[in-house]
Amino acid sequence: MNLQGVKVCSPRMQQGSGVFQSVRQRDRDRRRWCPDRPEYQLCSDHQWESRCPSGCRLQGLMEQTERQTGDRLRDICERTQRYEDVVTASMVTTKHIYNTNRKAIVKTHVFELKYVEFAKGLAWNLTSLRKRSAALLRKLNEQRSHVQKQIEDMYRQEVDIDIKLRSCQGSCNRSSAFRIDHDGYRSLHRQMTLFSNATEHQKNSPLKDIAKITLQPVDVGPPPSTDYKTIPIVQKELLTQFEDLEQNRVVLEEVLEETECLGSEGERGTGEAGVPECLIIN
Fold it and tell me: InterPro entries from the xrefs (predicted)?
């Protein structure tokens, strides 16, 4: 509220009580030269000279009405001044709260944007890493099959050698001591079984992609009114800058369907398993 915009109150606020004092002075002057008159009823035009009140009484009635109107107007102006003082104090408090919290709010807003960007890159890299791990697991299963076959071939050959050595002990001039390490082969067999069970369990577990974190705008109500933007302290202190900060909420959207890598082509490569290899963001 701008008190100077109330044209009726402006001269009275500038002149103080001088305007109202001048009305009282005129009333005292009127009593000195205007005699007291009895109350008269309304009269017609032909009764003007004999029954109508004198000019002094008419002037007194007008001044009385003016005085009453002035008292009411003064009360309105005083209340207007009190309201403006309250509004000014409220705007000063608003400015203090605004300046105190704006830095923290802007910092939080920037942090949210960076967090979502970081989470997006991390989801891409985690998805790539999981797919690369799955490819490496398939390769390990192939190697395990080869190792298992080699162990079986070695055990079979050692059994053949042991049989031949035993058969020639009576006819050979000299024989070498040979003993099959059955415990070692049983230990290898147990380890290969454990490894096979672990890989089968991981193979049967469904591989889910990482959910994507995004920001969605939130409707926080209508923007500030045009009248609010025209308040001098709002324009001076830039108390409408919060309109530049969009209100968001963090949500999980659709999962990633394809592996993507951040960075330039030089930062990308192909791993041993033949899948894209991305740098992990620290």
Answer: FIB_ANG-like, Fibrinogen_a/b/g_coil_dom
Identify the bridge partners of residue 212 per DSSP, sorted by sequence position: 253
Residue 110 tokens, joined:
């920037």
Q: Can you list the domains of the chain with their CATH numbers?
A: 3-90 (no CATH), 98-277 (1.20.5.50)
Measured from the Cβ of residue 125, the count of other Cβ atoms closer than 10 Å reads 20
CA 107/CA 105 separation, integer angstroms: 5
Contact 4, 10 (CB under 8 A): yes
Read off the pTM.
0.45
Number of H helices, E strands in the chain: 6, 4
> Is there a contact between 281 and 117 (Cβ–Cβ < 8 Å)?
no
In angstroms, the CA 272 to CA 268 distance is 13
Reduced to 3 states (helix: H, G, I; strand: E, B; else coil), residue 83 is helix
Q: Which two tokens stand for residue 196?
A: 């096979």
As given in the structure block, the two tokens for residue 87 are 């509004």
Question: What Cα–Cα distance (Å) separates residue 205 from each residue in 54, 135, 255?
Answer: 111, 14, 18
Q: Strands 211-217 and 248-255, how do they pair?
A: antiparallel
Instruction: Please tell me the total number of residues recorded for the chain in this structure.
Output: 282
- What is the identity of the amino acid at 48? W
Burial 163-192 (b: 16+ CB within 10 A, else e): eeeeeeeeeeeeeeeeeeeeeeeeebeeee
